[in-house]
Design brief:
Elements: H1 2-7, H2 16-33, E1 40-44, H3 46-54, E2 62-66, E3 91-96, H4 104-107, E4 116-121, H5 138-153
Length: about 160
Amino acid sequence: MTTMRREGRRRPPPRIETLVAELGEWHRAIRTLDSDTPLWFGGKSMGGRVASLLATRIDIAGLVLCGYPFHPPRKPELLRLDHWPQIACPMLLFQGTRDPFGRRDEVEGYDFPAQVECHFLEGGDHDWQTLKRHAQTQSTLIDEAVGRVARRLGASE
């Protein structure tokens, strides 16, 4: 991101394996400081994909996946779910119903592992933005997701 700002142009993200390795390093660093606290990992879009791939390699308490990129837009045949059956931890999934990386009608047809808890954010796109005519806003959808995560993890709101 710093390089993009400095150069004033977009750059592709690092390869997914590079990002998984970097997140694995963060996991190791956190574990050297605290080896007892249950760790939930997660992310938005590609960050959630990275966290889910890491969860196939290490033990973590759970995953929070926001706007998971199930497939590239307009290419639903290129699913990114092959690794999900290898994930043993609980998974909280938050997906906008209008997300081009996986709309509600598509996602409801996927055969998820039993530990996946899927929540659809009504009217939201990939960034949970809603249409102006919709009763909800991006902010209320974020609040809805945060409330569900807090309840699931036992935190007070």
